[in-house]
Amino acid sequence: MNTLTAAAPSISEEDFLKFREFFYRKTGIYFEESKRYFVDKRLVERLVASGVATFREYFVNLRFDTRGDELQQLVNLMTVNETYFFREEYQFKCMVNALLPELAQRKGRREPIRIWSIPSSSGEEPYSICIYLLEHWPGIHQFDVEIISSDIDTGILDQARQGIYSARSVQNLPATLLQKYFRKTRTGDWQISDDLRQAVEFTQCNLSDTLSTRAYNRFDLIFCRNLLIYFDDASRRAAADVFYNALNPGGFICLGHSESMSRISSVFRIRKFDDAIVYQKAFQGGAA
Known about the structure:
41% of the residues lie in helices and 17% in strands.
């Protein structure tokens, strides 16, 4: 006997454009036409999960969801979390060889050095920072270091706090560090040590939400790598302002290898070190 199944909801061009504008206003993330299939697929997933038959009905519910639960579900689906340990390691070398020694010279021994890693993704970057500090920076025994790592995706933050990784995520780690800082799980994955998990504070942050970013300040070093490529020019400039306000005078920010702060904002000074090019906030009075 034949059975009839309901057709999957469809997303029209008009639907896509409406959603793209809405999502951009909420997150600063702009989807090019080339991402249409990716966006449509995930929207249909949420329509089906929400039990609605049309995008129009879903979109009305989304806009009037005062708690923001459905938007968060979408954010978790739409954001890409592709990373691994020691990614773009040359910047970590720059951190321990040049940035931290310079910052330490300006710090009192009782002042913490504060580092912000955004986006956290599943935690590989902030935990890589921890390992690099412990292995390569003698000052770690003289200064307190606070590491805060943020992401817009609540689901990926939960994964980061658990600190469980596949063999692919840890493939760039030397075996000695893998044995020193991880334990093998029953499923064959690797879980980072409790000490390192407790060393990082994971928080949710939406760079397009001023209420969300207001609490982020007094940082000495920011890692924001391969995030701004998903923003348009206006959103990049707004993010640059957030980072500028979050940094102490003389603080540094590291971007991804394909990103350039010089093309986004003029408020940072370019600093060229042996290992990497980074950007610095001017000291009070304009000197750097």
